[in-house]
Amino acid sequence: MRLVLLGPPGAGKGTQATRIAARFGIPQLSTGDMLREAVASETPLGLRIKHVMARGELVPDDVVIAVVADRVDRSDASRGFVLDGFPRTLVQAEALDRELAARGIGLDAVLELDVDEEVLLVRIASRAGQAADQGQPVRSDDNPGAFNTRLKAYRAQTAPVSEYFRSQGLLRVVDGLQPIDVVTKQLMEVLAACV
Ligand code: AMP
């Protein structure tokens, strides 16, 4: 099962991708996690993208495409994967299609979490607040300034990706404002109908 999970920042992609991955026994490939790991380990790539990420801007396409292409070749992804946070631009979507086609595989479905922007602003504030309360590190991009930049990047660059997959007949949209378990249930129903 090869899946993409789309949705604006704070829509709950990470939570739902984790659940889908567990249910189908496939890895969750989160580009945000991979890039944050590179930043935390201060690799040459991490040092290059640290400030871009902290501002909430998108990392250059070629960088992310190379990271994902490497990751899908690892053995744990041979039976499938759920991509979380990628593709985020049309260039990335087309590159993903090309990379998968070169391996003789393709996507089974693209799931989108539809969420109102006002609600996202409240969610992101509460995510940062909860992390701080629990003594956990707060993401450097979980602040109103960077979040607005992330939302703008989503509107301008990622929203067209939905249309790209819609035109391929792969897009399935679920209302992401429902309680987390209801969203999961609906995603599972959509996936059951796809396979
Ligand atoms: P996320 O955890 O998915 O919200 O991603 C956090 C940050 O990582 C984003 O704001 C970007 O700076 C960077 N990032 C993650 N995925 C991508 C991607 N597909 N393209 C460009 N930048 C990305």
3D architecture notes:
The chain has helices at 13-24, 31-40, 44-55, 61-72, 90-102, 117-133, 144-167, 180-194, and strands spanning 2-6, 28-30, 81-84, 109-114, 171-175. The model has no long low-confidence stretch (mean pLDDT 93). It has a single domain, classed as Rossmann fold (3-Layer(aba) Sandwich). It has eight helices and five strands, in the order E-H-E-H-H-H-E-H-E-H-H-E-H. With 195 residues, the chain is of the alpha/beta class. Strands 2-3-1-4-5 form a five-stranded parallel sheet, sandwiched between helices. It is globular, with a radius of gyration of 16 Å. Adenosine monophosphate binds next to helix 2 and helix 3. Residues 9, 31-32, 35, 52-53, 56-59, 64, 85-86, 88, 92, 141, 150 line the site of adenosine monophosphate.
Describe the secondary-structure layout:
Layout: E1 2-6, H1 13-24, E2 28-30, H2 31-40, H3 44-55, H4 61-72, E3 81-84, H5 90-102, E4 109-114, H6 117-133, H7 144-167, E5 171-175, H8 180-194
Parallel strand pairs: 1-3, 1-4, 2-3, 4-5
Helix pairs in contact: 1-8, 2-3, 4-5
The protein binds adenosine monophosphate.
Share of residues in helices: 55-70%
Rounded to the nearest angstrom, the radius of gyration is 16 Å
What's the end-to-end separation, in Å?
8 Å
**Strand line-up in the sheet with most strands:** 2-3-1-4-5
Structure summary, number of beta strands: 5
Shape: globular
Give the helix tally. 8
In CATH terms, the superfamily is: P-loop containing nucleotide triphosphate hydrolases
Number of domains: 1
**What structural class do the secondary elements suggest?**
alpha/beta
- What hetero molecules are bound to the protein chains? adenosine monophosphate
Major beta-sheet overview: 5 strands, parallel
Name of the CATH class = Alpha Beta
Strand percentage lies at 5-15%
Give the oligomer, counting copies of the same chain as homo and different chains as hetero. Answer: single chain
